[in-house]
Each structure stands twice: as C-alpha cells, then as structure tokens.
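ugh ok fine here u go
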Amino acid sequence: MDYQALYKEKLTTAEEAVKVVKSGDWVDYTWCTNHPVALDKALAGRKDELFDVKVRGGVTMWMPEIAKADDAGDHFTWNAWHCSGVDRKIMAKGMGFFAPIRYSELPRYYRDSNVRVDVAMLQVTPMDDHGNFSFALAASHLADLLDKAKTIIVEVNRNMPWVYGLTGSEINIKDIDFVVEGDNPAIAQLSGGGEPSDVDKAVANLIVPHIPNGACLQLGIGGMPNAVGSMIAQSDLKDLGVHTEMYVDGFVDIALAGKITGKRKNLDKGRQVYAFAAGTQKLYDYVNRNPEVMAAPVDYTNDVRILAQLDNFISINNAIDLDLFGQVNAESAGLKHISGTGGQLDFVMGAYLSNGGKSFICLSSTVTGKDGTVKSRIVPTLTQGSIATDPRSCVQYLVTEYGMVDLKGLSTWERAEGIIGIAHPDFRDDLIAEAGKMGIWRRSNKR
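structure:
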C-alpha cells in the first residue's frame, strides 16, 4: 500500500474538514493534550451556522475556541469525562456538564453503551513509514472511541512525542477520513505543583518508609503525590516499577535518579505503563520514543484484575476531604464539581488486592478559604452534595501531616478515633463531640 499517496488523498484544511459537522452532532475532542487546536478554531468559525452540537473532552488543558464566545452555549454544549480547571470554567459559563465515570470503564462505554460519536477530531504525531500515527500522550480510551466514530479527522502536530504502546495506541491512515496539518503548537504543559510545602513533606515522610524495594508505583496528580515522588528520587529505594493512570513529572525524576528498573514487575517487566501523560517539557522529551515507557488503554492500566497481579503495588492519591466514617471525597466541594472519580477507586481496590500492596489517601488536615478562614478537611459527615469517591469499606491508609491510620478491620468507633487522631489538634474536640452525637464515640476513647 502506498501510504504517502493515501495521506495526500486525505489531506485537507481544517476549514474544509470541519464542514462534516452538522447541527445536532456529537463531536469528540478525545482527551487532555490530544484535544484539537486548528480544528477547534475552524469549528468555532462555523458557530453561527451550527446549533445543538454536543462536544466531549476530558482533562482539558486550554480553553477551547468553541467555548470562548459569549453566546457559545447557544451553539455548543461541552461534556467532560473528567474536569480540570478549564472544564470548570466552561461549566461556569452555563454551557458545560460533567459525565460521571469510573475511568477504567470508559472504553467499554464506547463499545457497548449508547455513546454516540458522529465526528472525532484529535491531535496526533506525524505518520511513520507504515502509515501509522501515534496517539502520543494519551492511549486512554481513544481506540474504542475512534472505532465508534462515523468520521475521523486527525490534526498532525510535529511536537507530539511518539510513545510506544500496546494495541490501541496508534491509528493507521487507512482508518482515517481526513488529515489536517496544523500549526504545530507547543504541547500544553502541566506544572508539577512547585516546591513541596512543609505539610507535603510531612505527609511524604510518613508514606515513603512504607514503600519497599521493587515496589510498583501509582502516583496521582497534585502536590503531595509529587512530594512523595521527589522523596523517592532522593531515597535509597531501588528497582521500582511504574503502572499508573497518569504519568507525571515525578516519575521522570525517579527514573532519572536511577530508581526505576521495572525488573521486579510481574507484568510488563522493565516498562513504565500509563494511560495518559501530562507535565512539563521534561516529561514530553523523556517519553518520546523511549522503550522504557509504554502507553496502554485505560481498561488495562486501571483494571483491578491487572493491578492485583502486580506485587507490592503502592497507590498514592489526594483527597478534598473525608469524614469520620472513612468516606473519601476526591471530586467535589459540596455541589461544586472539582474533578471526577477517575481511577482513584480502582487503584485503592487494586493496591489492597496486590500481594504486599498498599493504598494511601493523603491530604492536609486543614484548608484556608479565600476569606482567611481555616477549615478542617476532616469533617463529621461529608458535606451535602459531596461525592463519596472511595466508600468507607475500600479505604486503607489515610494520611495527614499529623499521622497515618489504617482503616481496614476497624469498627466505626475505632475509625472515628483513628481519623480524629490525624486531624488538626484545633478541631479534634469538635470532631469528638460530633462523633458522640452520631453514636460512633465510646466514653472510654482517648481524648
């Protein structure tokens, strides 16, 4: 097959390609760094011709052009599988909505559910000699999404790193309808969160001693997981492995420090496996054609049955708040949506099923509001409207700067005692009083 001839046959402009979109269509922008740029701009240019176009995305890294106009909501509706700060801004405009998911199930939603995709458009790498384009930083659910799409438009970006991966990390020119050569924008970068705070360091100091040599790591996004990553990079740990949903700068630091070999992994020995990646240019340079990293669909990376096969699997994630029953909220502040369930529950469960595995949910004991008020992140019960991302029956270790508690096997009063013990001292008496009212505090409990 003459792949170059087929490429030229399908090559067109962004303006021509987006003419395939009709009013009432479902358009999928795919995921994170793969969201289209030139195609998005061209679609926004057709705003006044289109109505009731539903667009899907997730972990949005920049404001889409289709969402910028004051009357954008009269023409486009944004639907996010997982929310970033940009997705929240789109929702605040009144034109965006969240679709609750368990991230590991997302490919199946496209395969088996009534998820409609009329047009899919995404950024990819340039084509190789075999007619393939790499999904670059996000294998995620893209293969199943594109299988469902009636029309596929790829936007080539020379700055996209080629990432080796499992089946479901590339697409061939013969399966594409239109090719657009964009302006090759720099890949959007995600900060590592800056220097870790004293609280971050205190939490990291509690977690790192629980990580054995040869452990397989999963780190969530945020300051605390990154602080743990920094400490691991400076530690004496060795022969670590990586199997994670999101690949972040912390893993690059650990790898460059010589701590990651993957030689003790039960699966994908020697490979750092992830569903999608976002970080600084350091990360993008590191993963480019690096045989030590491997992109894979999220129904592989986040599958509890796969995680259970990885010995000493260590999962470290953040939370917004938690209650005295051990319910963890990692996605909303009351009714205000923040992020999403993502893969946190999968990793909490998978780590506990792993031989020698451990799951850590970490958070600062307090948060300071815009008005300067200090509030406890440990609350009697989750605020009305807050989402229980991790049910109390699944949570293992909870960690704040004041300590760590393992909830497995504890009754309600033992849980309340342990959780209050890692709360900020200024709030403990109030929490004890509330625990008493809820009937989960024994008179003989320590005060």
